[in-house]
Amino acid sequence: MKIGFISDIHSNWEALDTAIKKLEKEVDEIYCCGDIIGYGPDPNECVNYLRKSKISVLGNHDAACVGRLNYDNFNPLAQYAIDWTKENLTKENFEFIYRLPLKDNLEGIGIVHGSYRNPLEEYLITYNSVFSNFQLMDKNIYFFGHTHIAGVFIYSPENNREIKYLSLVKGGEIELKPNYKYLINPGSVGQPRDGNWKTSFGIFDTKKNIFKVYRMDYLIEVTQKKMQISGLPRPLWERLSLGR
Ligand code: ZN
Asked: How far lies 42's CA from each of 8, 85, 145, 179, in Å?
């Protein structure tokens, strides 16, 4: 089976549309690691599409938009975008987001937004956070999002404190080996923060055990124009071009 992995769409329809056009030609299912909404101008278009996908887990921005997470400590621009999204989300889409699980799984693979031990809020970015999660994980492979950085943490069974990291900022692939543990981030569809503005997503071939990340151009100017017209703060649409 081939599974498409997307994450952190953040209401960017043009980026999602580019990703799904590629994925729908190649994969059997699409799974989302959360943050469908928040920041961008098209929350309903993005949720409408995700309602058809097999699995999506709840992200912190999703949770904030439907009252499942207090967002007083979010930065002011993110708070503004959450308030804007709350006003614009349809009732059906609100209910869909409200019911999303914190974790999900398919055979041997777990899916979360932030991390295994704190699915909504932990950023897997420091050695300690990654190491602790590798110790706790109930499956060898977890897909996650939240950092908006495409890459894979690799835990080797031979040396139990060694963690390797494979950056997928420019795309690329990795063959997953048995007995190793992996924390895999397909990158952000709608707001990459790894220095590459191009939309990011992945395909996992469960037969060959190969995970591959794709980075593709999308109609970024269209998204930015919509954000401008919607009155979303300038730094939020400017950052899309920077990939930050
Ligand atoms: Zn996010």
From this structure: 13, 9, 20, 41
CA–centroid distance, residue 9 to ligand 1 (Å): 7
CA distance 240 to 234: 10
Distance 158 CA to ligand 1 centre (A): 33
pLDDT of residue 53: 79
Three-state DSSP at 229 gives: helix
Cα 146 to ligand 1 centre (Å): 5
Distance 188 CA to ligand 1 centre (A): 7
Q: In angstroms, rounded to a whole number, what is the distance separating the alpha carbons of residues 182 and 25? A: 26
* 140, 166 Cβ separation under 8 angstroms: no
Span 202-225, pLDDT tens digits:
999 999 999 999 999 999 999 999
Read off φ and ψ for residue 137, nearest 5 degrees.
Answer: -55, 135
Report d(CA 33, CA 116) in Å as an integer. 12
Compute the distance from residue 215 Cα to the ligand 1 centre, in Å: 17
Instruction: Identify the segments of the chain with pLDDT beneath 50.
Output: none
pLDDT at 161: 76
Residue labelled with tokens 């469960």? 206
